[in-house]
Design goal:
The protein is mostly helical. It folds into two domains: 217 residues, Rossmann fold; 79 residues, Tyrosyl-Transfer RNA Synthetase, CATH 1.10.240.10. The protein is built from 14 helices and five strands. Helix 3 crosses helix 13, helix 4 packs parallel to helix 14 and helix 10 packs antiparallel against helix 13. It starts with 10 loop residues before the first strand and ends with a helix. The structure holds tryptophan and iron/sulfur cluster. The site of iron/sulfur cluster has 14 residues, from helix 11, helix 12 and helix 13.
């Protein structure tokens, strides 16, 4: 008799704060999520409570931001049939686990997280005091998000490393205190993707206005490319260029690998104008974004479809969360 084995996939979890529309740089992060969902049982969520830690006084866009970030994910190709997509605040167990973890987490662990003092400082320079109880607990809420799903890995940027480390320490402390083995120690999963720079060659960031939104129209893309920083030494088309300092050239490397060497040669020889070079990039970016725009339009026109996706994702997340909470309450004799 042949035995039918249902494969149990290892789990992964990741989330993003819904603070606004995603840009082209983010699409590479989402692409990584898409790839990982083939291999793992993946949970992806909007960290809406985390978004409130620094913006409790400006929540009027929160619901729309949550909707839009999910549309952004889906429009670049995240398949809701292959992963669970949900909102943090729809799975109340995250709050319960957070409060239980808070009982056994030394204050010093939170105070020494490097982002804590750094962010306090950065916000206070902008005139905002974020020294709240909730903000201090940011990494602990994140530990609850992660450990809730007992994942083996957490795909994150290197900036989130101290938070994942705190979650790992908490696992050891929890197991030691309650003499149990509930959580695998989650490993950070860094993606192999190269980071797309901004249109001015700096890091692509919301604070520099050097990004191209995934939801940008053709005209908006063209305007952004027009404003891209090129080699300042080139005044006339015949001036020999230095592609290595040019952001347009860097983008050709991401979106136009095939033609990049010939563009390099033509630029150095003074045989191609920056206008022409940008025009080619506009075409390519708009080609890249065409299917993304089509999927976005579909989702925008059928709000019920999005609701169904979240409804299903929430249900799957809750089921997994309830299993974990049963184990946690049992271990803590609650
Ligand atoms: N702190 C993460 C960020 O800013 C967002 C986040 C919240 C997260 N909870 C998480 C990421 C759990 C991974 C796992 O990017
Ligand atoms: Fe940049 Fe292209 Fe101009 Fe060379 S020709 S400087 S690669 S935009």
């Amino acid at each position: 008799m042949t035995e039918v084995k249902t494969e149990v996939k290892k789990r992964l979890l990741s989330g993003m704060r819904p603070t606004g529309r995603l840009h082209l740089g983010h699409s590479r992060v989402v692409q990584n999520w898409i790839d990982l969902a083939d291999e793992y049982e993946a949970f992806y969520f909007t960290a809406d409570w985390h978004a409130i830690t620094t913006a409790w006084d400006t929540t009027e866009m929160l619901r729309e931001n949550k909707r839009q970030i999910v549309i952004d994910w889906l429009s670049v190709g995240l398949d809701p049939k292959k992963c669970h997509i949900f909102h943090q605040s729809d799975v109340k167990e995250h709050a319960e686990l957070h409060v239980l973890f808070s009982m056994l987490t030394p204050l010093s662990w939170l105070e020494r997280v490097p982002t804590y003092k750094g962010q306090l400082q950065a916000f206070s320079e902008k005139g905002k005091d974020i020294a709240t109880y909730g903000f201090l607990g940011y990494p602990l809420l994140m530990a609850a998000d992660i450990l809730m799903y007992r994942p083996v890995g957490v795909p994150v940027g290197t900036d989130q490393m101290p938070h994942v480390e705190l979650a790992r320490e908490l696992v050891r402390r929890f197991h030691h205190i309650y003499d149990c083995e509930i959580f695998p120690e989650p490993a950070p999963v860094f993606s192999k993707i190269d980071i797309l720079p901004g249109t001015d060659n700096r890091k692509m960031s919301k604070s520099y206005d050097n990004f191209i939104l995934l939801s940008a129209s053709e005209d908006e893309v063209n305007a952004k490319v027009k404003g891209m920083v090129t080699d300042p030494a080139r005044i006339r088309k015949t001036d020999p260029g230095h592609p290595e300092v040019c952001s347009v050239y860097a983008y050709h490397g991401f979106f136009n690998k095939e033609e990049q060497p010939s563009i390099c040669a033509a630029c150095k020889a003074g045989e191609i104008g920056c206008g022409q070079c940008k025009k080619r990039l506009m075409e390519l970016l708009n080609e890249e974004l065409a299917p993304v725009r089509a999927r976005r339009a579909e989702l925008e026109n059928d709000p019920g479809m999005l609701d169904d996706i979240i409804h299903e994702g929430n249900a799957a997340a809750r089921e997994a969360a309830q299993e974990t909470m049963t184990l946690v309450r049992e271990a803590m004799k609650i």
